[in-house]
Amino acid sequence: MQVSVEKTSELSRKMTVIIPEEVVQEKINERLKTLAREVKIDGFRPGKVPQNVVKKMYGTRVKEEITGDLIQTNYFKALQENQLRPAGMPQIEPIKVDEGFHFTATFEVYPEISLEALDSATVTKSIAVVESSDIDVMIQKLKEQRKGWAVSEQPSQDGDKVTIKLSGVCEGENFTDGTIEEFQVEIGTKRMIPGFEEQLIGLAVGANKTFEITFPEVYGNEKLAGKAAEFEVEVLKIESSALPEIDAEFIKAYGIDSADLEEFRADVQANMQRELDHALKSRLKNAVMDVLYANIPVTLPLVMIDQEVESLMKPYYESAKKRNVDVNDIKPANADFEEQAKRRVALGLILAEIIQKNELKVDADQVRAVIDEMAESYEDPEQVVSWYYGDKERLAEVQQMVLEDATVEWVLSKVKVIDESVAFNDVMDSVAQQ
């Protein structure tokens, strides 16, 4: 076997492989001999079919099979001998020659990555604590979750729950399938399209109102997106909310059997602290990823970007299939995912380089610690632990998480870290947005 490699771009390679005629013929003859012992042909006893007859009948098929085998075997052998690491599947083309067998393999290789830039990089680390005022806000949210409703005779106001009859028309077509008889709207929750809830303020039971609102440009129903619609509503019922008192019954509902207020606040604080710790860890990890992406230059294999775009688009393809929409109609959206795909590919290559160069390994004790921590919030932690260890794929996900954490720690040991104090709500809001 003779191999030559041509560098056609920074990452693209064209490898030409030449296999001598005697090697090809030897493989073909071996296969024909095997067939001669196995095939059944009228007029010949089993195992006694002349090879020239077998060659006439099966020669073309055998040659195709042999050349396919030679491509697969010699392609990987040539990669090893030339220390090449393809970043994706090759494009292989046989070359017609009088003797032997030639083929070319065109592919991209993994880029070389330098981590030296990290020595001058800076990562901002957010620092936050759970203040007493944060606990007050959280308890207020818990009260909101358990609020009751009472019928009101007053005109509707912000915070009320209004039951209405509703119909909507857009471009002369009714899109609510006639009239929805009992449709509930909690004013102020922003669950309806912008402007809708405000139109219900100040109405009394029995009131009728017609109003026009334009749907957002980005909306789940493409037929309505960006278009003006006329709504007709009739108010059937108005209910005002009533928040519960923080009494023994309320506190016991959250698992505090003593009904002690201070113990309740301490429990709320512990849960908030646990969420904050996770949020700060996630925020720091994102900051590290931002620094890696911004500071480590990487030439990206186009094949890997295309594969990542396809991976990102897969849920949309599946959704289109369920809605009987032609997938070609959503092809232009591929461009929307290109930047996201580039970031994911770049970070994957950078993290792999860090792990390989520093020989970072998964620590079994750390994996168990992470699983134990995740199991804490469940009623039966041991069952959760068994659930993770009972499935290799689930366990592998946790192992990958631990390996990424080790990578983040390594990066933090190389860069300059600046602490920044932030409010509890700012941290949690940023997590919710992500």
Might you state the CATH topology name of the largest domain?
Trigger factor, domain 2
What's the CATH class of the largest domain, please? Mainly Alpha
Helix % is: 40-55%
* Total domains: 3
CATH architecture of the largest domain: Orthogonal Bundle
Number of DSSP E strands: 12
Structural class: alpha+beta
- Gyration radius (Cα, Å) is 33 Å
User: In percent terms, what proportion of residues is strand?
Assistant: 15-25%
Mean pLDDT figure = 91
List low-pLDDT spans. none
Largest sheet: 6 strands, antiparallel
Task: Count helical runs.
Answer: 11
The gross shape turns out to be elongated
Give the SSE string: EEHHEEEHEEEEEEHHHHHHHEH
Please report the distance between the alpha carbons of the first and last residues. 54 Å
Task: Provide structural commentary.
The chain has helices spanning about 20-40, 50-80, 130-145, 250, 260-295, 300-320, 335-355, 365-375, 380-390, 390-415, 425-434; strands at about 1-5, 10-20, 90-95, 100-110, 120-125, 150, 160-170, 175, 180-185, 210-215, 230-240, 415-420. With about 425 residues, the chain is α+β, with helices and mostly antiparallel strands. The mean pLDDT is about 90. It folds into 3 domains: about 1-110, 2-Layer Sandwich (Alpha-Beta Plaits); about 150-240, Chitinase A, domain 3, CATH 3.10.50.40; about 250-434, Trigger factor, domain 2.
Identify the notable features of this structure and list them briefly:
434 residues, Alpha-Beta Plaits, Chitinase A, domain 3, Trigger factor, domain 2, 6-stranded antiparallel sheet, 4-stranded antiparallel sheet, 11 helices
